[in-house]
Every structure is written in structure tokens, then in C-alpha cells.
Amino acid sequence: MDYEEKVKEFYGGFVQGEWKRLVSDRYHRLEYDTTLRYLEKYLPGKGRVLDAGGGPGRYAMELARRGYDVALLDITPANLRFARERAPRARMEFLQGSVVDLSRFADRSFDAVLCLGGVLSHVVDPTDRERAVRELVRVAKDGAPIFVFVINRTAVLLTFLLKDQDHIELPVFERYLNTGDYYGEFAFTAHHGFLPEELRGHFEGRRDVKVLETVGLEGLSSSHPKETIRLARNGPRWRIWLEAHYKTCTHPSVVGASEHILAICRKTDPASGKS
């Protein structure tokens, strides 16, 4: 089984779970709310948005509700069926396909491009990852923001300590430590864990993209869901913690420890160098 099929099979059986995950509790809402915060900061006021690998459509539907014309692209038919049923009258296109091949779209087709939910991490082959990045940039208009978030390698390594100490002696741990590659041996599906500099490097070496910010989506709460949920029950303390989260989530030390890393880029005109 190739890795794309493995990912497709996993998420095909996890549609409801993925839809609910981002709003299931205060810990998971950090990922969702922090992403929305930065979408609001950088998205244009209107326009056509590509949500590449958008799963069951949590972000796509929210942006459609806000008036954007959204193309939701995903490799998993079950995700697209769910999204169609959930939002039959939304201003959305529902398209099956892979982020590795966006050839159905012309150059400079979108006013903003999203690749959220760790989609680029699920492109395990490095050649395909680089192709996916080229495609995401290609279909963005000059000046358009590009949002990509991935699974952080160091945060996954920490889960071996917290949850899977028996696996530390297995080859999967050494492979993940050295390469970030995981082939879906256990509960989760195949993916590549990024280091922050690796994610930035996919974009910083290009003449047609400028990296604006990187964000640790779970920030200071990373890998501490129980403590985060408990703290959220105390309203005044939670508001203070959220303020601290948003104040620190772009600090390199916090980005490097967060479960998911969001990179925000802007497509530039390579001829002029202007964004």
C-alpha cells in the first residue's frame, strides 16, 4: 500500500472524529482558534480561497460563512460527502484530489491558499512534498497569503516519553528521530514530522515567496491537554493563559515545542520582488 492510500484509508474512517476534533475541548480549540486568528490577520477581505486537503471542511465552511468563495479539495471521498451534506448551500466547490497535483487549477487562481490539518506532513515522499509546495505557490495570486501547517517532529518524539515508552527501543523511534518519517506502524497514519527550520526552508529558498510568520498552534499548552482543559474551567485564569498563549506562540522556542506549526507566507512577484 502506498502512503497516499494509507492516509486516504485512515481519514476515510475518521470523518466524524476529525470534524469534531478541533472543537472537542479547550485544548484542541487552541489549534482551531489560533489558526482562525491568523487567517483573520492575513486573509484578504474577500475572494477565492483554496482549502487544499481540507478534510471534512471545518475551516472551509467557516470561511464560506464569512463570504469567501471556497474550493475544498481532499483525497478522501468520505470527507467530501460529509462536507456536501453539511453545507449544501454554501459558496463552496467540492473537489477530489491531492495537494501534490493541483493541475486542474491555472496559475494564480486564488486570492488565498490554505493547506491546514497537517496535510503536507501526510505527503511522506520528499519529492512529492516539494512538488506540493510548488503547486501551492503556483496557484496563489501575486500578493496572496499561503497558510501551511504541519506536525512537529519534536512534539511527536515527546509522546514516546509520555505515552509510548515501550516503543523507544524499536526502530521506529530512531527513524523518527533522525528523519521524521513514520510509516503508520501503530495507531496513527503515515506522516513526516517537520522541524521548524525544515518547514521554513521549503519556502525561504524560493524567489516567489516570503515567509511572514511561524506559529506554534498549541503553544505553551503543547502536550498538556489534561492540564489545559482543567485550567479552562476557571474563566479568569483561562483568559490570562490565553493572553500568554497569543503573546508567545510565535516565539521560536514555543514554535519548536508545539504539536503543530503554522507557516504563513505571501506569494511575491519574482520579476519585481514585490509582495
Provide a short characterization of the protein structure:
The protein is α/β, with parallel strands linked by helices.
SSE arrangement, N to C: HHHEHEHEEHEHHEEHEHHHE
**Which stretches are low in confidence, meaning pLDDT under 50 for 5 or more residues running?**
none
CATH topology: Rossmann fold
Query: How does the overall form come out from the CA principal axes?
Result: globular
Number of domains: 1
Major sheet attributes: 7 strands, mixed
Strand content: 15-25%
Task: Give the overall pLDDT as a whole number.
Answer: 94
Query: Tally of extended strands?
Result: 9
Global structural class: alpha/beta
Assembly of the depicted chains? single chain
How many helices does DSSP assign? 12
What does this protein structure show overall?
With 275 residues, this protein is α/β, with parallel strands linked by helices. It has a single domain (3-153, 189-267), classed as Rossmann fold (3-Layer(aba) Sandwich), CATH 3.40.50. Helix content is 43%, strand content 17%. Strand 4 (112-115), helix 6 and strand 5 (145-151) form a beta-alpha-beta unit. The mean pLDDT is 94.
Topology:
Elements: H1 3-12, H2 15-21, H3 26-42, E1 48-52, H4 58-65, E2 69-74, H5 77-86, E3 92-96, E4 112-115, H6 126-138, E5 145-151, H7 153-162, H8 171-179, E6 181-182, E7 191-192, H9 196-204, E8 209-216, H10 225-232, H11 235-248, H12 252-255, E9 260-267
Parallel strand pairs: 1-2, 1-4, 2-3, 4-5
Antiparallel strand pairs: 5-9, 6-7, 8-9
